[in-house]
Amino acid sequence: MGRVAPSAETAPRVRLAELGDASDVAELLSQLGYPCTRDEAAERIAVLRDDPRHYLLLAELDGHACGLVASHTRYSLTHGADLTRITALVVARSCYRQGIGRLLLREVERRARRDGVSRIEVTSNSARLEAHEFYRRCGYADGSVKFVKTLGD
Does the pTM of the predicted model rise above 0.70? Predict the structure, then answer.
């Protein structure tokens, strides 16, 4: 995943991830801080692909993977409607500042609107200050604080 500059003929495009994208998905998840193997990524793609309320989208620039976003739509008791939650968003370091992250967000928003969803949520690690600013620039407002408890054996 070296630095990729768009050619005059092509622009970044977004498509559903496929099993054959497992190596790229594994690499992108590793860059996000969630290392996994190609085989683990293939399993994850298969699970998401088989659930119509999940999307795993891959951004490509001149045929090279440059980012991904995963989202899940569910019914919210508190809002009385479906909402979409972005569960992962990453752009390859070599493709920063090329509009890939914004393109991925806009595609999730487009699909959510198409599916009748009126609210999108995204969580981001409290240490990822640049990501927080990115979301704010894209029109997302600060929301609830998330609490996590890891359940061990």
Answer: yes
